[in-house]
């Protein structure tokens, strides 16, 4: 049985900041995320010019000045190397993690209404939680969903920051009819997106998570979007480009409805999963609730990944290294808006799938 991504355990529902105990993995969403204060995106370098020129003129500590200059140059080289690594790194969105109140009910809804397959399920009674992985293809090549059920907790607060998941389907109307027939909630009837031609609809799963159904031809990645709201879109785009190595695929401003979106990802929207960042005019912070947890991304080097995140103003919440008891190397961080991401070593991830 694979030991990937344990979401941890015992929760005291009476606490406003739900606490998970047991597993020490960075995959564990430990507490309700808060939004950290983030200053400049890239740390400014120190200037040595004036002090160095004075020392050179006086002939004092000439060697020390040269050493300082060399150190500054080395630091710059390291930063360039790290950010260049991000551009060359083989990254892929692995899965998205969130909590549900009845895992069997959710599995049934996703299987019967959204056409997903249950890839694997594991129960960890000593930690009092159960995981289930669902998607449209194997985990070694597809973006999938990881559901977490914590014993005794049947409801979570989704908050206002999380937006929706996107599912590409060939016939939105038929999918909506199926969802309705199975007792699902339809919150937006099929029709063209405002200001465009793509046919969409919105439905909700039993826990209240929203799914946008997008009418699209056959695609290798039907689980195609995760939408998150951010307080500064330009800042978020720069961070996802530099720290996460994602490409800005497109932006769309909707002044009539007072919002702007940016699609970020590791490949084109019709063939890979993307993160949809949404900025609502004038809104800088959101309540993230305690339901949505994180996205996991594969990387060839968690250590260099952590360095890049720090250089770009992100906050490391778990230093890079192997998980206790297993060899899988990970690192976890928060983006400038407080959204959590876990980076997983690519080779270690594939080894765990083989167990």
From TrEMBL:
Highest taxon of the lineage: Eukaryota
Entry EC number(s): 4.4.1.5
Isomerase in keyword set: no
Bilayer-crossing regions: none
Reactions catalysed: (R)-S-lactoylglutathione = methylglyoxal + glutathione
Residue positions of the active site: 212
CDD domains per the UniProt record, alphabetical: GlxI_Ni (cd16358)
Xref: Pfam families: Glyoxalase (PF00903)
Metal-binding in keyword set: yes
Pathway stated in the Swiss-Prot or TrEMBL entry: Secondary metabolite metabolism; methylglyoxal degradation; (R)-lactate from methylglyoxal: step 1/2
Swiss-Prot/TrEMBL keywords: Lyase, Metal-binding, Repeat, Zinc
One function term, GO molecular function aspect: metal ion binding
InterPro entries: Glyas_Bleomycin-R_OHBP_Dase (IPR029068), Glyas_Fos-R_dOase_dom (IPR004360), Glyoxalase_1 (IPR004361), Glyoxalase_1_CS (IPR018146), VOC_core (IPR037523)
GO terms for biological process, alphabetical: methylglyoxal catabolic process to D-lactate via S-lactoyl-glutathione
Cofactor binding comment, as recorded: Binds 1 zinc ion per subunit. In the homodimer, two zinc ions are bound between subunits.
GO cellular component: a single term: cytoplasm
Record domain VOC: where: 92-216, 222-346
Residues noted as binding Zn(2+) in the record, renumbered to the chain: 146, 164, 212
Family named by the database record: Belongs to the glyoxalase I family.
Protein task: Catalyzes the conversion of hemimercaptal, formed from methylglyoxal and glutathione, to S-lactoylglutathione.
Protein name, entry field: lactoylglutathione lyase
């Amino acid at each position: 049985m694979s030991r990937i991504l344990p979401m941890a355990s015992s929760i005291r529902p009476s606490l406003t900041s739900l606490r998970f105990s047991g597993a020490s993995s960075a995959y564990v969403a430990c507490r309700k995320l808060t939004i950290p204060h983030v200053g400049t995106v890239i740390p400014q370098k120190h200037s040595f010019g004036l002090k160095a020129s004075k020392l050179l003129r006086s002939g004092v500590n000439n060697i020390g000045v040269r050493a300082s200059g060399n150190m500054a140059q080395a630091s710059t080289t390291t930063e360039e190397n790290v950010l260049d690594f991000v551009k060359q790194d083989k990254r892929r969105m692995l899965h998205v993690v969130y909590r549900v109140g009845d895992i069997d009910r959710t599995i049934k809804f996703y299987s019967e209404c959204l056409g997903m397959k249950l890839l694997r399920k594991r129960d960890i009674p000593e930690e009092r939680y159960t995981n289930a992985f669902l998607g449209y293809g194997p985990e070694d090549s597809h973006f999938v969903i990881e559901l977490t059920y914590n014993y005794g907790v049947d409801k979570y607060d989704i908050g206002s920051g999380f937006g929706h998941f996107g599912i590409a389907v060939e016939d939105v109307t038929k999918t909506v009819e199926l969802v309705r027939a199975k007792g699902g909630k339809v919150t937006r009837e099929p029709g063209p997106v405002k200001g465009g031609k793509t046919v969409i609809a919105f439905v909700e799963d039993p826990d209240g998570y929203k799914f946008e159904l997008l009418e699209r031809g056959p695609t290798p990645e039907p689980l195609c979007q995760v939408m998150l709201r951010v307080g500064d879109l330009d800042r978020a785009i720069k961070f996802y480009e530099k720290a996460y190595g994602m490409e800005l695929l497109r932006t769309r401003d909707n002044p009539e409805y007072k919002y702007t979106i940016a699609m970020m990802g590791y490949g084109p929207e019709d063939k890979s999963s993307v993160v949809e960042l949404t900025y609502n005019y004038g809104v800088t912070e959101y309540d993230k609730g305690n339901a949505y947890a994180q996205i996991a991304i594969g990387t060839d080097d968690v250590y260099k990944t952590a360095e890049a995140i720090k250089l770009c103003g992100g906050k490391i919440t778990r230093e890079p290294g192997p998980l206790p008891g297993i060899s899988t190397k990970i690192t976890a961080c928060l983006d400038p808006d407080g959204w959590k991401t876990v980076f997983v070593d690519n080779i270690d991830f594939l080894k765990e799938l083989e167990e």
